Amino acid sequence: MGGFYAISEWIMRFSIANLYWVLFNVPIGLLLLSLLYIEESAGSALYLTVPVVALLPVMFFPATTALFAKAREWVREEEHTASSARSFVSYYKENYKTSFIGGMVFVAVWGVLIADIYYFSSRNEALMYLFMIMGILLFVWTVNYFSVAVHYDMTFFAGFKHAFLITVGSPLVFLAVALSCGVILYISLYIFPLIIPLFTGSLVAFLSFSAFYRLHRKLAG
Hints:
The protein is an all-alpha fold. It has helices spanning 2-24, 26-37, 42-76, 84-94, 96-120, 125-151, 156-169, 171-191, 196-220.
């Protein structure tokens, strides 16, 4: 009975936090869904892509930072009297400025990388695959940045650098984040999309922060 209660509690934690994360990203989600149903024309796609990109630093990065802050609670087994909604909103507001700056920088870097992949896809396949590998590195770096942002009291650039050093300096964390996120995203997008509003974000945040926190405790001695 105790095991069933514990499992139910974790399911509830993950689903509630994930739903708040989805709620804070509703405009982005609606625009992405619209992209799936528009006629295949460059003009129409660009018309919807631009606002999506513009909203990422404004909505996605602050909401994802708040989700990682909730994951930090779970990993560290912290007890909070505030409701899930109140704590999520508190984390959202508390980290908004730093996460907004982080979003601006990471979106710009991602934009350059995606443009390079698109450009070389029809000109030089070797370079295209090289940039795709760099994309995996950038993905893990982005995820690690969220963990760093919620765990340390750092300026953006200090956190940006620290997340990069973790990404390139710890192969085990790199593999743990890349593989766990890759599996979760593959299942969510191609096998069982219904878990996206309930568990996808929470699972990514929890597993990624767990890998980061194990490294943090090891280095702390």
